[in-house]
Amino acid sequence: MRSILVLNGPNLNLLGKREPAHYGVLTLAEITHRLEELGARLGLEIRSFQSNHEGVLIDQLQEAPAWASGVIFNPGGYSHTSIALRDAVAAINLPVIEVHLSNIYAREEFRRHSMIAPVCTGSIAGLGWRSYTAALTALAGILEEKQ
Questions:
Q1: Which one has a higher pLDDT value, 9 or 102?
Q2: Partners of 122 in beta bridges
């Protein structure tokens, strides 16, 4: 069974409480559970990780090629600022899909540019928790085509 890293950046541990108008009412644990259920149907094992620390996220990305077939990555606020995370994504040679719960293109100007997106296989934004399931479905298809 192929494994997928679902990596979540800063403040995503506050989902369900933090700005529900932008990010929804589901907690990160509830989103992860939905991904695990979908992953089981797609024949994929989900390993989820969240950190508020940039270096820890980089470590997770660098370790992923040893065990993962792909990554779903919500860098949170680091999307707009982190060249280091951009470089880590570019270095790992795995398909990475960037996700955002909110539509970053309909929000504040500073949120409309992602440093991470140009080195990702794709980006999905604005679908709430469904951004994650859309990313997992797309990643499953990408991996299937590589076989």
A1: 9
A2: 97
For 118, half-sphere exposure in the C-beta direction (CA atoms, 13 angstrom radius) is 8
The 10s digit of each residue's pLDDT in 61-97 is 999 999 999 999 999 999 999 999 999 999 999 999 9
Fold category of 2-146 in CATH: Rossmann fold (3.40.50)
Which of 23, 105, 113, 132 is catalytic? The answer is 23
DSSP string, 65-113: GGT-SEEEEE-GGGGGT-HHHHHHHHHS-S-EEEEESS-GGGS-GGGS-
Among residues 53, 78, 100, 113, which one is catalytic?
A: 100
Give the full edge-to-edge strand order of the sheet including 122-125.
44-50, 2-8, 70-74, 96-100, 122-125
Active site residue 23: yes
Phi, psi values for residue 50, rounded to 5°: -135, 140
Q: What angle do CA 142, 11, 4 make, to 5 degrees?
A: 25
105 is catalytic: no
**Close Cβ partners of 134 (under 8 Å, ≥ 6 residues apart):** 99, 124, 127
